[in-house]
Design goal:
Structural class: alpha+beta
Largest sheet: 3 strands, antiparallel
Distance between the termini: 72 Å
Shape: rod-shaped
Order of helices and strands: HEHHEEHHHHEEHE
Length: about 180
């Protein structure tokens, strides 16, 4: 097999584009070379002297493409960009926990007056219906005036956050979190 044929086969195997470091070993195994020749230099020369078949990838140092695969490569690159954008969009979506925490905060803020507490009961029921009993129970305790601090363990530290007071603290410019080294 000639060097040009071997390079074409390798690039086809890689979808029309490949790095020189991926091209070299395959072409060296597949093609015939003159004895004592610098095989890598010969492969580079073959790529450079056949612009009808090969071209360097734009913006991708050390990559070569098949000229005949330009539509496929452009289509694949476009799809990769679309998937990266979709992935970024999905990563930016707030988690359910963040949503529920925000919902609790807003409910407690908006319905803190005794005359509107019945509206908070409806929110508690919706949270329970949605399978978030933890948040529903937290809201019920707040309604009864028996709210317990929210506790989360983070490594060697205990993070204690009393939702109503700490939310007010955050809104006033505080950190909203008290961190104390847990004693063994």
């Amino acid at each position: 097999m000639t060097q040009k044929e071997a390079i074409i086969k390798v690039l086809e195997h890689y979808g029309g584009r490949a790095k020189l470091t991926d091209i070299y070993p395959h072409v060296i195994k597949m093609a015939e070379f003159k004895p004592d020749s610098d095989k890598k230099a010969t492969i580079r020369t073959t790529l450079q002297r056949n612009p009808k078949y090969f071209r360097q990838s734009k913006g991708k140092k050390g990559c070569w493409e098949l000229v005949s695969y330009q539509e496929e490569i452009a289509s694949r690159d476009k799809r990769i960009k679309e998937l990266e954008e979709e992935n970024a969009r999905l990563k930016s979506i707030k988690t359910e926990d963040a949503f529920v925490e925000k919902m609790l905060k807003e409910t407690k803020k908006r319905f803190k007056h005794e005359s509107e507490r019945n509206k908070a009961v409806a929110v508690s029921q919706i949270l329970a219906w949605a399978g978030r009993e933890d948040a529903s129970e937290n809201l019920d305790e707040w309604l009864e005036g028996k709210e317990k601090p929210f506790i989360a363990v983070n490594g060697d530290y205990v993070v204690s956050k009393h939702v109503e007071n700490e939310i007010d603290n955050v809104e006033a410019g505080g950190t909203g979190v008290n961190i104390n080294k847990e004693e063994d």
